[in-house]
Amino acid sequence: MLSHSIKSVLGCGLVILLLSSCSSPVAKIDVSSKAVDKPVLTLPPVDVVRMRTVDWVIITEENFAEVVAKAKKDDKTIAFFALTDEGYAALGLNFSDIRALVQQQKAIIGSYETYYNTIEKLEEEKVKKDIDKWKFF
Amino acid sequence: MIKLYAMLIVIALLGGAGYGAYAYYKDSQARIATLTTNNAKLDGAIKTSEAAIASIQKNMKKVNTQLKKVSSDFADIRNQNNKLAEKLENIDLGILAINKPKIIQRAINGGTKNAGRCFEILSGSPFTVREKEAKDAKSFNKECPWLWPGNTSTQ
Question: Is residue B80 part of a domain?
């Protein structure tokens, strides 16, 4: 009776032990994230400006007849789009302002380019250094 | 029979104690492993934060450099833009045109051509032979001498 009970207990214990061996440990999942570079923005250059020829004609009281005669001789329409000296100066200054604006915009674009290109270069160098470091192993 | 029960109780007690010790050991090991992992993660996080701060500081330096450069460029451009206004302030174009219409006509046509050429150069137009061979900024273009490639001055 006693030996039967002991056998039963030991038998059950053995079965439980064997069953517990069947359980496998849960595999650990490693999740790693890697930053993906943004695609490089490549834009076309601006169109090259080709300025048209502008011919100014100065007309004074003295040369008025001479200028009109020359225009007639050259088969030009006798209609002048006139500016006073002040108007001419204002036009010149307006042009100068526009040129300054173009230059300022160019300076800003150049600065953006330099800033982002140097950052990209630095990041590339860092990645290269990291790779070199890992090559050791 | 009592012996059997006593034995079973002893076995159960011993088993319980053993299991308890085993569970405590397992739990301690798991805690140590978790703490070690946490420590490593914190270490990594600190290093990442430090690297991020260093990178931000480096980039801030670059931002300041570019800001200074653009501010300086803008100041130069404003000075260049004021040149024409200063020139026009010092002369009476109307009187000059009355006295020497042909000379002034030639001068303003030349000036207009040069000013137009400045826009062409700014838009990326290649230099002409005359511009390439220019010995100084003035012979390059009187309206925008600062665009001369050999120019060291921005005025």
Answer: no
Q: Are residues B48 and B104 in the same domain?
A: no
Whole-number Å distance between alpha carbons of A63 and A53: 23
Six token digits for residue B131: 């511009």
Q: For chain A, say whether B64 makes contact (Cβ under 8 Å).
A: no
HEC letters along B94-109:
HHHHHHCHHHHHHHHH
Last residue within a domain, chosen from B38, B69, B100:
B69
Residues 77 through 116 of chain A touching chain B, CB cutoff 8 Å: 84-86, 88-89, 92-93, 95-97, 99-100, 102-104, 106-108, 111, 114-115
- How far A67 CA lies from chain B's nearest CA (Å)? 11
Please choose, from the candidates A47, A52, A103, the residue with its C-alpha nearest in 3D space to the C-alpha of residue B143. Answer: A103
Minimal CA separation from A35 to chain B, in Å? 14
pLDDT in tens, chain B (155 residues): 788 888 889 999 999 999 999 999 999 999 999 999 999 999 999 999 999 999 899 889 999 999 999 999 999 999 999 988 998 899 999 999 999 999 999 999 999 999 999 999 999 999 999 999 999 999 999 999 999 998 765 44
Structural domain tally of chain B? 2
